[in-house]
Amino acid sequence: MECKIKNDIGTIYITEDVMLKVVGYAALECYGIVAMSSKRAKDGIVEWLGRENLTRGVQIRNVGDMLDVDLFIVVEYGISIAEVCKTIVDQVRYKLESMTGVKVRKVNISVEGIRV
Fold it and tell me: Half-sphere exposure (CA, 13 Å, Cβ side) for 103?
């Protein structure tokens, strides 16, 4: 899936990998998030991913001309999970819309773990 933006000058193509990285870096900038995680559907094992693999903790889907974003994260112990998630939603929506021009319909967050 790639994003296509048309303007007066021409057409801009943004690959899915670029959008995944924008979302991953935007999420990791938020206070309280420790890591991205990848959940294997077949065996339920959660892998903790560093910055080099952060795109595995992100999924995006086209819904019409908008995007739905799914994030799988690990948060810091002792922090309000609700506040961390609210901050992440706002940050991801702002960064993705301002950097790519694509509108975000929804940001879904799955907290896969807590680290002390």
Answer: 5
pLDDT tens-digit readout, 33-63: 988 887 654 445 555 545 556 677 899 998 8
Which pTM was predicted? 0.81
The amino acid present at 102, given as its one-letter code, is V
Cα–Cα dist 97/83, whole Å: 21
Identify the DSSP state of 94: H
Check: CB of residue 22 under 8 Å from CB of residue 99. Answer: yes
The DSSP code for 16 is: H
For residue 68, what are its two tokens? 């739905």
Q: Which of 96, 95, 81, 91 is nearest to 33 (CA)?
A: 81
